[in-house]
Amino acid sequence: MFIWARIPAGWTSRQISREILYHVGVVVIPGDAFGMEGEGYVRIALVQEEDRLREAVSRIERFLQTVRPPQQV
Question: In sequence order, what E strands does the chain have?
Answer without folding.
Answer: 2-6, 29-30, 41-45
